[in-house]
Amino acid sequence: MNTSFFGELLQTISERGRALLERTRERRGDAAARSHGLVELCEELLSGRGEASGAALAREIFIRYDELTTGPRIAFFEALATRFGVDRERIDAAVDAWARDGNDEAAIELHLASEPRRQELFRRLNLAPGGTAALVSMREDLMDAMAHRDDLSPVDQDFVHLFSSWFNRGFLVLRRIDWSTPAIILEKIIRYEAVHQIQDWDDLRRRIDPPDRRCYAFFHPALVDEPLIFVEVALTSGIPRAIAPILGNNGSALRPESANTAVFYSISNCQRGLSGVSFGSFLIKQVVEEISREFPRLSTFVTLSPAPGFAAWLARERESNNPILLPEDLAELSELDKPNWWQDGAAERLQEPLLHAAATYFLSARSGTGGALDPVARFHLGNGARLEQLNPFGDLSEKGIAQSHGLMVNYRYDVDEIEKNHEAYAENRTIVTVNGIRKRARAARELAKA
Amino acid sequence: MNTSFFGELLQTISERGRALLERTRERRGDAAARSHGLVELCEELLSGRGEASGAALAREIFIRYDELTTGPRIAFFEALATRFGVDRERIDAAVDAWARDGNDEAAIELHLASEPRRQELFRRLNLAPGGTAALVSMREDLMDAMAHRDDLSPVDQDFVHLFSSWFNRGFLVLRRIDWSTPAIILEKIIRYEAVHQIQDWDDLRRRIDPPDRRCYAFFHPALVDEPLIFVEVALTSGIPRAIAPILGNNGSALRPESANTAVFYSISNCQRGLSGVSFGSFLIKQVVEEISREFPRLSTFVTLSPAPGFAAWLARERESNNPILLPEDLAELSELDKPNWWQDGAAERLQEPLLHAAATYFLSARSGTGGALDPVARFHLGNGARLEQLNPFGDLSEKGIAQSHGLMVNYRYDVDEIEKNHEAYAENRTIVTVNGIRKRARAARELAKA
Amino acid sequence: MNTSFFGELLQTISERGRALLERTRERRGDAAARSHGLVELCEELLSGRGEASGAALAREIFIRYDELTTGPRIAFFEALATRFGVDRERIDAAVDAWARDGNDEAAIELHLASEPRRQELFRRLNLAPGGTAALVSMREDLMDAMAHRDDLSPVDQDFVHLFSSWFNRGFLVLRRIDWSTPAIILEKIIRYEAVHQIQDWDDLRRRIDPPDRRCYAFFHPALVDEPLIFVEVALTSGIPRAIAPILGNNGSALRPESANTAVFYSISNCQRGLSGVSFGSFLIKQVVEEISREFPRLSTFVTLSPAPGFAAWLARERESNNPILLPEDLAELSELDKPNWWQDGAAERLQEPLLHAAATYFLSARSGTGGALDPVARFHLGNGARLEQLNPFGDLSEKGIAQSHGLMVNYRYDVDEIEKNHEAYAENRTIVTVNGIRKRARAARELAKA
Amino acid sequence: MNTSFFGELLQTISERGRALLERTRERRGDAAARSHGLVELCEELLSGRGEASGAALAREIFIRYDELTTGPRIAFFEALATRFGVDRERIDAAVDAWARDGNDEAAIELHLASEPRRQELFRRLNLAPGGTAALVSMREDLMDAMAHRDDLSPVDQDFVHLFSSWFNRGFLVLRRIDWSTPAIILEKIIRYEAVHQIQDWDDLRRRIDPPDRRCYAFFHPALVDEPLIFVEVALTSGIPRAIAPILGNNGSALRPESANTAVFYSISNCQRGLSGVSFGSFLIKQVVEEISREFPRLSTFVTLSPAPGFAAWLARERESNNPILLPEDLAELSELDKPNWWQDGAAERLQEPLLHAAATYFLSARSGTGGALDPVARFHLGNGARLEQLNPFGDLSEKGIAQSHGLMVNYRYDVDEIEKNHEAYAENRTIVTVNGIRKRARAARELAKA
Fold this sequence. Notes:
The structure is a homotetramer. Chain A is α+β, with helices and mostly antiparallel strands. Chain A has three domains: 4-166, Malonyl-CoA decarboxylase, oligemerization domain (Butyryl-CoA Dehydrogenase, subunit A, domain 3), CATH 1.20.140; 170-303, Aminopeptidase (3-Layer(aba) Sandwich); 306-449, Aminopeptidase, CATH 3.40.630. Chain A is 52% helix and 10% strand. The first copy, chain A, contains 21 helices and eight strands. In chain A, α13 (280-294) links the parallel β4 (261-269) and β5. In chain A, α8 runs antiparallel to α9 (153-166). The model of chain A is unreliable at 20-36 and 445-450 (pLDDT under 50). Chains in contact: A-B, A-C, A-D, B-C, B-D, C-D. The interface between A and B is large, with 81 and 81 residues.
């Protein structure tokens, strides 16, 4: 309760970070005066001078980096890949020692010798005020550069390694996002929403302010004003089959006490520079806990999710010489080619064939590694959710029709089964679902044989 | 200014941590019911189950660990050292690949293969609420155990490696400690003060509340209510030569506007479990910045430090066959054997011989690696301070007389010279000082030759 | 610095207030079940029962009041005016005692006897969670009702009396409004801006986020999420002559360090229910202090204000048989009748006549009580500002043309002269201004004689 | 949840208040230079100058007031009583108007005319930073002065009137006090505890830190770091009969989940300058609510209270010619004269006579106005509590023996009966109690007849 002493800690960080930003802008003017090279500064930071004046040096490096255009940045990444890579001679010596002694000390030296120098460089760059944000942003640039440069991949792996340690779940903080949240955070929620676009501030308000809505985000103490990932939740009566009523401006909120279901209808990662560090699973589970505490009567936690690979898969099925779907399904599904097919009688006729196709897509269509083909399915099944309900007319927006013929899916998070489901999927690629879906799926012949 | 949204983040962490503590206590009762072994739980945490229920598993592991007595704890550390060490076969394969390919991928695999499994275990243990604090505390136990068990040292190195990354300076937050600080923090200041003991709350208040006193500490967002290191500062007029007036209850504070000097008279590390992770240098430099901003007229930043190795060194000199000090100094210094020598006329006579001895101790007596023999000197010189003033009668307390015949030292932090001094010391073991001290030192013959 | 313990106090209030709102909504359902009358509840609150259960009773009263439609509300106000007025017999007795004794006790009793009972009722209604906000809102209803009901005016006077005590400047808190401010506050800034309308969130951001903009508001601890009054400030180089560049989206902010002038270009009261309680003078003076502390180099504090009565006054002048303005001015000013007169050459020709008219308007046109005719002028001159500059083409918006033929005014706040200016105006109705304006004014003949 | 924007408001107040304190100290030096009189400054504050520079003037007045010694302060209070009293001529005119018109306007003018000018003076003094605290402190001085000066009483009444409005329950904030509370608050808890003295910080910690203890205080936004009133609570199993086990250092806290009773064992007012403004009743009721929410299983809320008037009353009874107690009780109670009577067999023999005496004291002994004779009883019965249990050996400390022969009392707060009990006591002086106490009371003959 009276824990605000700690509460102010982050405030301090936050202010420091903002102040840096200001200073950074101000210094732009005298850029020309700085002739010393970025790589040399990095070497200094790794040397003794870095020990005496690390924070100042690190800040200087970021300021100069900011001033670079794309070309020089790529050159800098190359230097990170080569000049700040491993010390090959040290590795060779360590390998010899391992061959000779094979003891703990040799293993430790092998580990240290094979750590690229840039890892320590990154750790020291973090001394700069706002350093963590600057490193995350630097990795975004690197990802852009990597599109054409496979040789930069080891640098990227080091970023992921470091960020995985720094952004350990134990350091993340869950915060509710509502209408009392600072605008500087809210504008980022608008910007980062990746599933169902937020039109404007009024739209945002409809999603976070009514008593039957919740929004939660993870934050990290060192990232000023930046959500890492957030989830939007609607409290409903029963499991919803379509997204439009949830996004719509119906004006009448449900009294949260009357709800029995919490629907996670949108999860968005915010920091491209942190891709590869996974937060979503933790977020969903902690929000389930949070909401359960607030509304003990809620019994059902489900998503209302897109099926982004469904239309593409179905297209391949329809052209395949060896489809999994039965010919009669495929015949009926040719109606999908007609424009606005869902607006006339076709919709009703297509319901059952679509369910067959969808069930088959989720249960029988597999990726190269044997997991579910659908990426959203992989995420939720891997988290321990169960495939709960298929909604053929769940999203009739242009995007929804294009990517999944309107199909939406509910994945269900049942606290008592999460672990079991997760293991079933992780170990045997078993997709846990309900009978209604299972019996609608056409078994892929190859898999059936396997 | 309006950054309190972030300010509340840590509050949340703080509350979560405290709540865990409560729950931990409560669960003590049913300890007997848990038969499953700690090591097996750790294996589970590293396995797929850990991905689904990591936080709960990690918490369970800490609860059980807390219930262990010393013997089983050491057994657990042994398991960390052996069972959760490296995978030797994987290393061997990686070594082969390196020999064969010698490319980036091979280096990366070498690095991964030689990382002990306990590193990932520690990272996952951090998922538990309060996990960071629990890991720091676990390392304290390990350090106790290591007194007799050298084989546990690799485990300790992994802790240091991890903590160095997590407690990166970029994640630390400086906070002023004053009379508005929560009692739960203040009691730790009392407990952790290691240089000049704080007697009670009144004594504490004299050190943090008057307008001419300051106290600052570093905190980490994940360590609830726990300072990492703190420094006590007195604002004075001129460089003080003795500690008693600073600690004393003289009742009349200096108006801070009249001060020209800030004296760092005590620095204490708080977390034994973080030893090996260095904060002191950053703390001093940031506090210098902080105080300069508040009192732009302050021109001088010095310490008032003990000389913990002086008496022992002098004793060795006096018994040495080959002393550095001149015979006349040694003769006069025999007065130090008399009880209460400083209370009579001897004090005056001893002033100059003591200054000779002290100057010699700091400038000529060297450790095995060529650095200053005195550990406090090593710290401040390594940070870029300069040896500024020797005070033969600086600390006449029992402890002060015993460890240094009353000698205290001022090290000076001059912002413009820190880097230069640091490099001089780091590269050539040059001890930067003033002429007055330099000319009083007797040169060690061996060094003179070198 | 570490004062957050107190910082949390208001948070508590704020949460309490919001919770009430929720509960209020929820209870709407069983309104019919409450048959007991509002007036009877008020009597109870004033009686012994109120002492035992004041908060619950007060809350109940507000809930019922909220459910009333306009008619019954007016009836309730009537009851406040009559039934909860003074106790005439007690007054008569007190008057007798005063006549007889004429001492302190008699005066005190006279004071107590002549306090309407509703004053104590209001104080007890404040026991309800959110009571202060509810009382302010009740007064807004009363003000609507008073449009046709002069007999309710004594009730209104009691509200003003009470609010003047409760909203004493000593209890107000100045807060900067910026992009880190919670959305729930910012939406009110958008809504309450009364001078230069804020179009949308982007427009808001342009006014509070750039480094050369500031916005400050007064808050009261008991009014949840409600600014009382706010002022928008632009930092500029020189005193601006027009509002468009300030409101416009020019994209390039001035570096605040380069500014020498702070321009208060909009002040808006937020709470209609607090009209009659004056905050503006305090706000301007405290913001001047605040900004001076942040930017010590700023030398000039001016407003950029509308002249809302200018066009109407000039119209009267032009029709007057006995105008103050000279005939030649009036002749030229007839150009103002042409549509879009300011877009062609007329503008230049009109500059001087408009300055004559404006100077005369401010210096010679007086209200019935001898003060400045212009209400904005009365406010700033009464606060101690000086009439600094007239800008004939300051606001060419539709509204600006309509109410003042585009005229805007700078009033200057010079800390060293505020008191003197205030007294000159308060005591002698002297309007302090600069020579340039004074010599352009045509003296009103009547005033000249006086 | 995200309401910290408001949370920071008070922080601002708090900092402002502390800064004033600093400045005040600093300005002490040039006191001599201020020759202008305090009374004249007060006149200025009430005049036009006060409108322009109220805050600065008010601050100046407090600085000068602080420098006065007792004599001049009393002179200042005299000036408040006379010079800043009512305007007699204005009253006379208002009385005439009332006699003539007798309408609302006349009543209002009567009210305004009979308000002493010092009321407005106090309101304007509140403009100074820290003004509220300074006024409360000024009233403390006045209370000291009033010991010998009845004529100052009207000034005091004005303070009470103003403070009653400003410290309206609606503006108070309840805060839990625990080991995370800032030391600057905690030291005041130590200082202000008036019932069972707190020995030192360890004793304080035993009262606020263990899981079975709670402490709550009321704060006002304008009083920096100052609790107004606080209550200490122990969670117990059953209603306790003695204070020693609660205050003692028994080392083993009850698990709060096992408790069924909350015991309010100490309530202390903190601000002498606010005496006459009552907070206790509100505090107890709100803490009952607060604790009920945290521990829904708690069924019983009682006090463990002293009986400060019991020994004195019993002494009068024993000397009375016409005692209420029966002769046999009085005979046995003569044992109380023996030193340490409670330590031998006498204790057991005295149990029943003491219960007779205590029951009689509470039920039959009445004050001049017919209420309970015991002041603590008057407070709790007036709040709606019931006399629940008498504990003859409840407090065997020196103070406890001296003032009540060791007697302690439990008053019970039963939410459903508070209102009824309050009314019974307020209207008929009926003391609600249990049968066991009622039948032990000896009826006072006089009362029996009535």
